[in-house]
Design brief:
The chain is mainly α. Strand 2 and strand 3 form a beta hairpin.
Length: 605
Amino acid sequence: MASEKHGSSESIQDAKFLPGTDNSSVHDGKFEEESFIEGSEGVTQHDLDTLRHVGDRLPYSAWLVVSVEFAERWTYYGTTNIFNNYIRAPLPKYSTTGAVIIDRANGVAGALGKGQQISFAIRTFNSFWVYITPWLGGILADTLWGRYKTIMIFSFVCLIGHIILVGSASPSSIAHPDVSLGLLILSIVIIGLGAGAIKANVSPMIAEQYTGKLRKKTLASGEVVVVSPAVTVQSIYLWFYAAINLGSCGAISASFIARDHGYWVAFLVPTLIFVLVPIVLLMGKNNYIRTPPRGSILLESLRVITMALEPKWSINPLTTIRGCRAADFWDISKPSHYADSERPAKITWDDEFVEEVSRTLKACTVFLFFPFFWLCYSQIDGNLGTVAAGMKLNGTPNDLIQNLNPISIVVLIPFFDYIVYPFLRKRGINFTPIKRITAGFFVAGLAMLYAAILQHYLYEMSPCHDLKPSECLNDDGTQNPANVNVWVVSGPYILVGISEIFASITSLEYAFTKAPVRMKSVVMAFSQFQVALSSALNFSLTAVNIEPTFAWLFGSFAVTAWVVGTLFFIVFRSLDRREIALNAVGKGARAGFVDETPVEEKAAL
């Protein structure tokens, strides 16, 4: 951060021109000195406060990583988005593959016939598993292979899982539902292992492709602006998230293929698309900025935390909390706390690393509220598909509607990136990450309120009322839906998409910008871990994830989102004032260190 020194008593003649300053302000014969912001290219705090901030151009290698994420997400969502019908619903009449043979316009594809609760439990486990495994991917990347090689290796692991998934849906497997279910669970474990390891490394790898610094630039209009890495990273993650959701639109074709041709074909198509992942990785091998393995920052961070916690731990929780909040909490884990002859051998880090762990943990407390946000998101991942199954489909597969979520995100991201956010910045409105995340919680709550009202209305309109509208059948075994057009259910999907732009994308941006250079995998894995915690919490609600309680379930999630969002803003609003300082964690000099390098030497560097 820049330091400003105003009101110097030195005259112009006596002023000392110190290195690292622009020395440009003179008032009433007095010299006013303002230093450049650490790590910038000639940008002062005054520039940062008064000039408009713009993003930089994204490098070619970043777009290559985006294409990898696009193909991987197409494959992942192109399979998981049709899991609900595949597990929950039985084979349609006369079908051996899950395809609808009779009354295709309103028929629902299915295969294993295990019911809503088993379907929910397996899908929730899948979500939990795929967000636990990023820890493994982060450790392997940090200690052994680096991010590029880790992504490459686990892309082949993922491919094996998809091949097993295709086999689980063959007619001979579906004829034995328990065998098919076993193969499905095996494929989920293997795919989750690969997808999670890829996820931990793709997110930081894409932002690492941009290496620009804070600098000034004169536009063609003559306006002088600040080219901001923070704004650029925000834009990178907007487009990264667009790639995720554009890829997930692959589930559109999967829904139709499953209904018309069966599940083995529906799973085969994304498997073939996944082959593009290693191909694109190889094509861009010489273009990527690759971070080599430098030892496990995650494991070393845990050692620092454990060492600091040991003397503060007590069976009395209040004593432990007071100890953790003490000013000297981290001292015992710092090398400077010991004489050289007394320093424990397990300390392999320096004081600055301990400070990075401390400050990163404080920033990462932001993510602890996210499990409640992801509870709202989880409802569009299957339960709302079950709601849609009780409505008039008119040729639209019930699990197709959920693709409105990624479609809305893909459509709205350019709108936010090119219109909304620049409009706010131009008018000096600082829509900080904390404010954006808070807005995400409130919009997610609106989505759940919409879903609760819709489900209550569906209970009244369905011939089966509040029992199980999705399983309401005529005497001939065909669907007997409520006289409600299935597209009415699109509201929650679109609203959740908007909430993701505010909250989920910002969490990726926050995880990257608040992490010190050598701790990005740790922070990113911790951010993604919140989805796993949400899945574990959701799993405990399996008993109430049934159609007769959907309205109450959705309504309770709406209230939870609003309450948690309010608490989130109250707790973290102070971080808005420290935004620039938090972005500099682990990137500049240590606290108290004065850079006395001459300007000429810095320029040479």
